[in-house]
Amino acid sequence: MYLISYNQIIDFVKQNIKNINTLIYKNYVPISSIIIGFVLLPITIKGIIYGLGFRITGIITGSFASWFMSLYGGTIAPGSLISILQSVGAAGFSKFGLLMTGITGYITSNSIINFIKNRFIK
Q1: How many C-beta atoms lie closer than 10 Å to residue 91's C-beta?
Q2: What pTM did the predictor assign?
Q3: Phi-psi region of 60 (alpha: psi -120 to 50; beta: other; left: phi over 0)
Q4: 105 phi and psi angles, rounded to 5 deg
């Protein structure tokens, strides 16, 4: 049996902390873009959809969602915008939806961060 002591772990971290810091510093744009695109954006979109009145229990009376649903005149077609919003509000993103949201968020945030970096940070 091979056991690693606490001191060995601390020594390893101390020896490699500069490498980790360099890796993060050199790659902060893609790392930030991944976090924004695949973590923050889906959470934000889900929160907005929830705030509009699309909930697990259904559409909330008196909300934007109920007004929007009234525009459909009682007939909600599968795949319509309101059915997609209700699905996301009730169950969250599908794997494909999460992937597409993440990719879109990554590309957008990467472009914005690079623009700011190149324009304002010397």
Answers
A1: 9
A2: 0.71
A3: beta
A4: -65, -40
What are the tens digits of pLDDT across the range 7-38? 888 888 777 777 777 777 788 888 888 999 99
H-helix segments, 1-122: 6-26, 28-35, 41-51, 64-70, 81-91, 95-120
Q: Phi and psi dihedrals of 54, rounded to 5?
A: -90, 105
- Please report, to the nearest 10 degrees, the dihedral formed by the alpha carbons of residues 41, 39, 110, 54 taken in order: -10
* List of E strands, the chain: 54-55, 58-59
Instruction: Report the interhelical angle of 81-91 vs 41-51 (nearest 10°).
Output: 110
- Yes or no: say if 99 and 34 are a contact pair by the CB < 8 Å rule: no
Strand partners, 54: 59
Give the tens place of pLDDT for each residue, 82-106.
Answer: 999 999 999 888 899 899 999 999 9
Q: Computed over its alpha carbons, how large is the radius of gyration of the chain?
A: 22
